[in-house]
Structure prediction request, 227 residues.
Amino acid sequence: MSEFFSENTFSFLKELAAHNNRDWFNDNKPRYERDVREPALSFIRAMGPELTRFAPHFVAVDKKVGGSLMRIHRDVRFSKNKMPYKTNIGIQFRHELGKDIHAPGFYLHIEAHEVFVGAGIWHPDSDTLKKIRTYIDAHPTRWEDGCDDAGFAKAYALAGDSLIRAPKGYAPDHPMIDDLKRKDFIGIAPLMPELLLQDDLVGLISSYFETATPFMQQLCRAVGVQY
Prediction:
């Protein structure tokens, strides 16, 4: 039995998906705090020493707002979907410089029927994207070594958006064109939801994050930050 999340966590997320409105959420806010927010903050605290061990420049911040736990409120200003709440728990362990620059990070996504671990950069800004492409072009072997590392490639699949055509400045027949077309540089590792309820959850998630080290090292080098 996990000391963090429980069946109640998944029950809340399922019900929120079915009743995504402010009245229901306000009526059930004590459940959110007990079954979602507090377990998530406890998990974040427990991940801190693990990150220090294998990724010391990534931080676990157990604040209710502005830390590793992402907001449950959706930004609906520019979205056709006006549902006010996210139906997942999002936990991000950002690089210590992440507030000032677009840097790689680790991510845990918990939804009623979908759980996955992520590592990398999602939607980097144009300057960061240019740095990554320049690095791939200049150091193709290093980049491939990170992406094709046996442990990483077995656990993760690269995901995200890509351009249809070659980016400006690169030939369509460039040997690294598939990677140069990427707009996101993130690996996704799916997990069975029931694994979130096991005893050593911190050990499990840490092992997935640590497995992504070769890939994350290359991303950090590309954008000029320490891993």
Observations:
- The longest strand covers residues 88-94.
- The chain has one domain: 7-223.
